[in-house]
Design brief:
Structural class: alpha+beta
CATH class of the largest domain: Alpha Beta
Number of domains: 2
Largest sheet: 6 strands, mixed
Radius of gyration: 25 Å
Low-confidence stretches: none
Strand order of the largest sheet: 6-7-8-3-9-10
Distance between the termini: 31 Å
Helix content: 10-25%
Strand content: 25-35%
Number of helices: 8
Mean pLDDT: 93
CATH architecture of the largest domain: 3-Layer(aba) Sandwich
Order of helices and strands: EEEHEEEHHHEHEHEEHHEEEEEEEEEEE
């Protein structure tokens, strides 16, 4: 049993089931991120933990106590919303203090907690300002400060950074991570941004269609996606997914790929699970950083294989150059070093690190190797 347990929880609106049987156990101090596209059920699940939505079937418990019939105010959770939800007519200090006043916390204790969170979040100079005088990042800090004074069992964050510009999102992401490392609090965080999920979490639940598609650490999710949805959703640029045929070449299992110029390439792909798929088509998955120029390939891998392929597009990106070729009728993106001399129209050697490749069943879309 975890600190927060979601046990076979579902949510239905009439005959429509928007969240299917969901099992997640969160340990104390964990940072769980619920990630997925709009409509996948992640915010519904967060609202069920908060008590803003009722659980249709199943159970949600905190510290061994079922929350199903417990009012939101009695759950000892704190929620940070996308919209900040600050009182515009109150000062920052008033916003942070208001919840404590409603709980009857003594003035001396309120002042101590306000000073504590103001120092932690570096908003001491803002205490006499009103929300309208603050930037988006400052308002988000105030919303977090108000939540921190509650000293809750679980913090819930509902897409807290989506209203911020790109640079501020990165800065606030760092602040939230520092805060978690410093306080060791239990956090459930909802986002549609897979970079936020990978950088912030200790574990990720990838959601789609009301189901948890995969639950695991960021490394597990990134390196060993359970299915094609997870593979394509997590990572930027996303994992390359293209058709290949499993064949035997020189006694070794290999992937036969059609190139953009009409030729074929056969790349050793020696996995025990693939022997049963000989002669069949699979979907080959490989991330851009596992397809490089020859000199940039991982020298520790014993499964780097070079394929000459036509270059469709080059995209300089500062520290890297993304190079696009075609394989199996799909665009395939490789990550080359920035100083590699490559241009569209070239036939160029692409180094595939097949240790990092995965295979999916084209019908079920589940990973098979």
């Amino acid at each position: 049993m975890g600190f927060l347990d979601i046990d076979q929880a579902t949510k239905s609106y009439g005959a429509v089931k928007v969240l299917h049987e969901t099992d997640i156990s969160v340990e104390e101090g964990e940072f769980l991120v619920l990630v997925g596209p709009s409509g996948c059920g992640k915010s519904t699940l967060l609202n069920m933990i908060a008590g803003l939505e009722e659980v249709t079937t199943g159970d949600i418990s905190i510290k061994g106590r079922s929350m199903n019939n417990v009012k939101p105010a009695e759950r000892n959770i704190a929620m940070v919303f996308q919209s900040y939800a600050l009182y515009p007519n109150m000062t920052v200090k008033g916003n942070i203090s208001f919840g404590m006043e409603m709980q009857g916390v003594a003035k001396e204790e309120r002042e101590r907690k306000i000073a504590e969170v103001a120092d932690l979040l570096q908003i001491g100079q803002l205490l006499d300002r009103k929300p309208g005088q603050l930037s988006g990042g400052q308002r988000q800090r105030v919303a977090m400060g108000r939540a921190l004074t509650r000293e809750p069992d679980v913090f819930l964050f509902d897409e807290p950074l989506s209203n911020l510009d790109a640079k501020l999102r990165v800065d606030m992401r760092t602040e939230i991570k520092k805060l978690h490392q410093k306080l060791g609090t239990t956090i459930v965080y909802v986002t549609h941004d897979q970079i936020e999920a990978l950088t912030l979490s200790t574990r990720i639940a990838v959601m789609f269609g009301g189901y948890v598609q995969q639950l695991g650490t960021p490394k597990e999710i990134y390196d060993n996606p359970a299915n094609m949805f997870v593979a394509g959703f997590m990572g930027s640029p996303s994992m390359n997914l293209f058709p290949a045929r499993i064949v035997k070449a020189d006694g070794v299992t290999a992937a036969e790929i059609t190139l953009g110029n009409g030729g074929t390439a056969t790349i050793p792909f020696d996995r025990p699970a693939l022997t049963a798929h000989e002669g069949r088509e699979i979907i080959l998955g490989i991330r851009p950083e596992a397809i490089t120029d020859r000199d940039g390939a991982d020298r520790n891998s014993n499964a780097v294989h070079v394929v000459d392929a036509p270059v469709e597009i080059t995209e300089p990106a500062g520290s890297d150059t993304f190079v696009v070729t075609q394989m199996g009728g799909k665009d395939v993106t490789a990550r080359f070093r920035a100083d590699v001399d490559v241009k569209a129209g070239d036939s160029f050697p692409f180094a595939f690190n097949m240790q990092k490749a995965v295979a999916f069943d084209p019908k079920t879309e589940d990973r098979i190797a």
